[in-house]
Amino acid sequence: YGNVWKSYELEIPYNATGNTHLEFKAELIDEAEGHAICAEDDLDADTYGGYHRRCMVFSGTQIDAWDDNHVLKIEKIGEGTTLIISAFIGNLFPEVGTEIRYISFVQDNDAMPAQGSSKFWDI
């Protein structure tokens, strides 16, 4: 719930290629400012304003204002909706040999920290 940014290290890093895709299921329970899943090579917090576009955002009250250069906007879902998402993410890693080392989950809601809830599974 609320403003949550969590990263989990993969046991084995994955070498990203142009054909790399990420598939997962997501459910939006209570909409926050933004809900996203990220494939990361490091833990630098450059999600929305840095040099890398690593996050796929699927819902939120502020995502229309998020910079397309920093997030991949996929189908926006409403509360109570479950979505199966399969997205090619290889183009998010233009540097040859980039390893995906972390999967990160973002629920951005700094204005109302007690609100917002989403679930991810089958990643």
Describe the model.
This protein has strands at 4-15, 21-30, 34-40, 55-59, 71-73, 81-88, 99-108, 117-121. It is built from no helices and eight strands. Helix content is 0%, strand content 49%. The chain is globular and about 40 Å long. The relative contact order is 0.40. It has 123 residues and is mainly β.
Terminal-residue CA separation:
20 Å
Name the beta content range.
Answer: over 45%
The string of secondary-structure elements, in order, is EEEEEEEE
Mean pLDDT: 80
Report the C-alpha radius of gyration, rounded: 14 Å
With helices defined by DSSP (H or I, 4 residues minimum), what is the helix count? Answer: 0
Order of strands across the main sheet = 1-7-3-4-5
Strand count, sense and barrel status of the largest sheet are:
5 strands, mixed
Which residue ranges are poorly predicted, with pLDDT under 50 across at least 5 consecutive positions?
none
- Assign an overall shape: globular
Question: How many DSSP-defined strands?
Answer: 8
- The helix-and-strand class reads mainly beta
